[in-house]
Amino acid sequence: ETWPGFRIGSSAWPSGFLLARALAEGLTGLPSVQGFEVVEIGAGPGLPGLVCGKMGASSVCLTDYAEIVPLIRKNIELNGLEGTCSAQELDWQEASQSSLAVAKRGIGRPVDIVIGADIIYFEEQDPLIDALEALMAPEKTMLVLAYRERTAADRAYLEEIILPRPEVERIDYESDEHGKCEIYVGCRRAR
């Protein structure tokens, strides 16, 4: 379910569809989610996170702004994933205070995989990088980030701010229905 017109995060976007499909297909280069703890940031309706739940993740926490959490909960229920998936508010500016943050969980219990699709917006650059650093344990937490270019500023932000921090591999992925996106997979470097 989506809530078109409610706000930007309540709609499904092309990279979300593409990442969900790539995960469901077991695209070469993507990590298997089976048995791992996954967090989706900026989930909106949560399609990639829901697919992780269906693909055997041990748990999936789909996160977004408080206003979007009821939509995520509805989609978890519609897909019968209440035992695996949960919805949680995550304001990127406050991510370091979240129960999902490495600092709160301890370095020995980090989230296994952080996923995000269509979350690269130049306007949100500092909060996003702060959230990724708060949630990802260096050399332990895997990042799976699906990106589709919107603006030159977004591209510059991705290449100059986001991608230099983790060691990533790029996978180009496309479908007839949703076009193309880039999927970046990697771990945050140790400092």
Topology readout:
Blueprint: H1 14-25, E1 37-40, H2 47-54, E2 59-64, H3 69-78, E3 85-89, H4 102-105, E4 113-117, H5 125-135, E5 142-147, H6 152-162, E6 166-175, E7 179-188
Parallel strand pairs: 1-2, 1-4, 2-3, 4-5
Antiparallel strand pairs: 5-7, 6-7
Task: Offer a concise description of the structure.
The protein has helices at residues 14-25, 47-54, 69-78, 102-105, 125-135, 152-162; strands at 37-40, 59-64, 85-89, 113-117, 142-147, 166-175, 179-188.
Strand content: 15-25%
Fraction of residues in helix: 25-40%
* Uncertain segments: none
Class based on secondary structure composition and strand pairing: alpha/beta
What is the helix tally?
6
Q: Give the SSE order as H and E letters.
A: HEHEHEHEHEHEE
Shape by Cα distribution: globular
Q: Can you give the mean pLDDT?
A: 90
The description of the largest β-sheet is: 7 strands, mixed
N→C terminal distance: 41 Å
Query: What is the CA-atom radius of gyration, in angstroms?
Result: 15 Å
Q: Count of DSSP E strands?
A: 7
Strand order of the largest sheet: 3-2-1-4-5-7-6
